[in-house]
Design a protein that fits this description.
The chain is globular. By secondary structure, the protein is an alpha/beta fold. Strands 2-8-7-6-5-3-4 form a 7-stranded mixed sheet, sandwiched between helices. It is about 40% helix and about 15% strand.
């Protein structure tokens, strides 16, 4: 069997139709969208058409959408820009305990270097944040609440987000959500969610790397991270990535047509894979929830083994997966997402994420299910800790 790619939460292959849409703006349509001559005007038209298409997808106005280099920049813009804008009036921020590092690290920077108070909103064993527990943290001093829509490691979707937004707004706080892993996989409507800021990117949905966007609700002012030009209404200066924006818009247009079909098919595949792993391998835990989730994301903790060893062993068999989050792969610490869910750090070290894509087949999953049990058995046989537990 050919190599099997099950690391789509890290990045996806670029859809051929996306590449085709981008190519003209990597060649003859190379103009700078800020230039007033015909080359620039052509690029500007393409950029604004892409903005309109993406805005329609998330149900916002085109004027509320700002292009960035990706999810990390969008998250940093939202967290740092909002907090600094409100610092003289409010200096408290709340982020979910299971947020991506692109949200947690800017928040920690604000706490450590700029004097902000910081609270991590706790999650339950499935990764959900209770609105009641959030309410206990929000105060009249809260500037920003940032809660991820769909988790990149477990796939858990915060289905109580409109209620959490309401709680934040009752105290006058701004609400941001990182929707990088949700966009194009589940329906996202910024008006229905009620959020003030939303981050998205292209390379998780068969679009290009290096292009994302930040939704900023009309009338909301945030401080820019960068200075040096009037691009994106001075909120994100720098020559726009026209080809990237066109590619992102095309990727979302494709997702809109395929989302319902993809969701149902991948949900069925996930049920098959999860049940099979739990039934064939002892001492394994499924991390997350079986109900309200992004179906292509499946995370397991294999007791008595190191997740990185499983990743490398599967790679030898032609299967690409990841241990925890791709952005922290190789780190010594256990996944902060899993430990926040109450999972013992020793068990969390054995976590492996399998993230399916649009082309994933049952035959591919069955191949993995054939190779995985003997790999776990072999690794456990070499584990003094596991063998001690087994004989105690």
């Amino acid at each position: 069997m050919d190599t099997i790619y099950l690391d789509n939460n890290a990045t996806t292959p670029v859809d051929p139709d996306v590449i085709e849409a981008m190519v003209p703006f990597l060649g003859e349509g190379f103009g700078n969208a800020s230039s007033v001559h015909s080359f620039g005007r052509e690029a500007k038209v393409a950029l604004e058409n892409a903005r309109e298409q993406i805005a329609a997808f998330i149900r916002c106005e085109p004027s509320e959408l700002y292009f960035t280099s990706g999810g990390t920049e969008s998250d940093n813009m939202a967290v740092l820009g909002t907090a600094r804008r409100l610092k003289n009036r409010r200096n408290h921020i709340i982020v979910g305990a299971t947020e991506h590092h692109a949200v947690i690290e800017p928040a920690e920077y604000l706490h450590e270097k700029e004097g902000f108070q910081l609270d991590l909103a706790p999650v339950d064993s499935e990764g959900y944040i209770s609105p009641m527990r959030l309410r206990a943290l929000v105060s009249d001093n809260t500037a920003l609440v940032s809660i991820m829509h769909g988790n990149n490691e477990t796939g858990t979707v915060q289905d109580d987000m409109p209620k959490m937004v309401e709680i934040a707004h009752q105290k006058g706080a701004i609400f941001h959500t990182d929707a990088v892993q949700s966009i194009g996989k589940v329906d996202i409507d910024v008006k229905a969610l009620g959020v003030d800021l939303l981050s998205l990117t292209g390379h998780k949905i068969y679009g290009p790397k290096g292009c994302g966007a930040l939704f900023i609700r009309s009338g909301l002012k945030i401080d820019p991270l960068l200075h040096g030009g009037s691009h994106e209404k001075r909120r994100r200066p720098g020559t726009e990535n026209v080809a990237g924006a066109v590619g992102l818009a095309k990727a979302l247009a494709i997702a809109e047509k395929k989302m319902a079909e993809d969701y149902g098919r991948l949900n069925d595949l996930a049920d098959h894979f999860i049940d099979s792993v739990l039934n064939t391998i002892p001492d394994v835990r499924f991390n997350g929830t079986r109900s309200n989730r992004i179906p292509q994301t499946m995370n397991f903790a294999f007791n008595g083994v190191e997740g990185e060893s499983v990743v490398l062993s599967l790679d030898v068999e032609g299967v690409a997966v990841s241990s925890g989050s791709a952005c922290t792969s190789g780190a010594i610490e256990a996944s902060h997402v899993l430990t926040a869910m109450g999972i013992d750090p020793i068990v969390a070290h054995g976590s492996v994420r399998f993230s399916m894509g649009r082309t994933t087949t049952r035959e591919e999953l069955d191949y993995v299910l054939e190779k995985l049990p003997p790999i776990i058995e072999r690794l456990r046989a070499m584990s003094p800790v596991y063998n001690k537990q087994a004989h105690s």
